[in-house]
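Board notes (copied after class):
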Amino acid sequence: MNGDDDADLAVIADEQALWRLVTALATAVTPFEVAEAFTKEGPLAAGGAFANMAILSDTPGLVQVVHRPTFNPNVVAQRGMFDLNANTPACEAIRSGLPVLLGSPEEIRARYPELLTEIEQAGLSSRVSLPLHSATGETLGAVGFGWPEPQVFLAAQLRRLDLVAQLVGLALERANHHDFTPSGREQPNVLETMPNAFFSLDAALTVTYMNAEGERLLRTSRDAVLGSNFIDAFPAAAVSESVGRYQHAIAKGVSVVFEEYFAPFEGWFEVHAWPDRNGLNVYFSDVSERHNSEVEQTVALDEARQAHARLSFLAEVSSTLHGAHSRAELYDRLSKAVTTSMADWSTIVVPSGEELVRVAAHHRDPILNSLAKRLVGGYPHAFTGPSPGVVVYRSGQPLRLSHLAEEIVNDLDSSVASAAYGRTLQLLGDGPGLIMPVISDQAVVAVLTMVRRGGERFSDEDVSVMLEVTTRAADLLDDALYLETQRETASALQAAALPRTLPTSPRLRLAAGYRAASEGSQVGGDWYDAFELQSGHIALVVGDAAGHGLHAAALMTQMRNALRAHLFDSLGPSESIAKLSSFVATQEPDAFATIICVEIDPLTGAGVWASAGHPAPIVLSRDGTSLHLRGKPAPPIGSMDVGSSDRPIEHELVLRPGDRLVMFTDGLFERRGVDLDIGLTHLMITIEQTLGDADAVSACESILRAMLTGAHDDDVCLLVADFSS
């Protein structure tokens, strides 16, 4: 054997443990006995330190998990019932029918973060779960293995794990259909259905049992072999060192493992011999392909790595798609994810009316990515047209093309728009294409197109992987749609609460702006208000209700309306805030908000203001200097004791001709990782730079544009008042 063979054999478990597992499974009658045998003997048989087993329950949607609370094989196995939809390796292996390979704590954290602590406390760094199948391919459950150190999962190890899973699956199938009676147990079918030739010998090497695969190997019936000497039945062994190894195993009571070429069978076999009190058990595993071809061995290792890479890719895509706040964001993430791993560029179209409209596009090349983005929203495909995307939308079946751009261009009409579309596709790069439907509730809801520029055609394996990707995307569409609807509803409620028009006055000119957060799925509770009072004064309000979504928008609307009523009754800013706080304490005891109110005479510029935990206004004087007003704010709404000294204090304010009053919410200047004083100073400098702006409207836009240059994770409200002579 060469060095690679030695490396592979290094991960093969103790053969005596494998035979203990085979023996235990052969005598197990009930499904729980199968699980108990596996959890006791399975870890060493698979070269691991831990094993558990999940069995599909008779109750739909439930699985029964059998495990041992310690690594001690003498500890009694325990059972528990779990939901099949639970986010665990065993449940995923059952649902998908595929192995779940977790080679390190990092992979466990990425796919099952909620299980990492439990797995680490058990002393494990890597896990594997494999589905259990019957002889007809029916999924019966799953088995899991664990190791205290990270695993690379080489081909020999994966073959051993698969062998153990096959043995357990066949034993579980037999137990599920076994009609047990106290009179005895039937012949162990697990040996009859195992894929290796198996023989039981007595101390004199007389054959006492041979399974069906043994009959096939020797090309004779068991009746002709049972009771005869094994060397006579297997003459090829007489001309080798096998006899001496068998006798050594019996005499010393140890198992032996070796590989040997048997000419009559024209192949190499891996031979395992394990003694028991009755003699010797021997099985033969055909390893001709592995032994004869280094290339095939490399392929096997590559396949194992590819399987691991596939599972890692699916886990990464799932993580990327999870948490998308809208369908548009989900499609954009999907396009970017597949472009990063599977293609050079991709696009996604969705049905709109009687045509398919492009909603996402990405290119691997950063320069061409901007060109790909120009496809979004443009060049729709009518349902009556020949576009490959339309073909897939109608059929619901994947489509592979050898030269996607060329085939699309050949079907375009002679219009200017079609010519521009064709040139864009050619610039993005032509090559093999794969077009996948995204199906939800048995209907195609989107079509994903991927292109490899001059690369290899998409394989059947690629199609299989992308079927899983699009299925996972479809599963997350409902969540994205729910968040999208919530955001739209909250946005509509918030928009309805903002004043449609602002009061007008010859000397006091107003402007206001609202900007939703650029991150997150839900709007916040920021608002502004401005209206004329019975006295002729103007009330200016800016508030920020804690939270996001419908609840925050509804709370904001309640507070806005209540505060309006109090101010309109001429109670003044301080008394109005106090009454609002009392109202919120009784109606919304868990609410929290900050508010600032200004009441100003539009003829003289004189006024008063009060704050409940909100940043004070900034006044820009006509000479270009800004002043952050000083005052003692009351605690925020929700934490104010109205009957104490917490009551808001009113502060006087006088605007001179040419002064500019600026009110705002903290989202305008607060940034993650930036000191608040620095952010506030930046805002004051920005306000000073609006001195040259002719009116409040242009100043408001200048401030928003300068302060919100990048992503901001909070809503922003801004209210500007200019007082003139």
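Comment from the instructor: Residues 3-176 form a domain with the Beta-Lactamase fold (CATH 3.30.450.40). Confidence is low (pLDDT under 50) at residues 1-13, 179-187.
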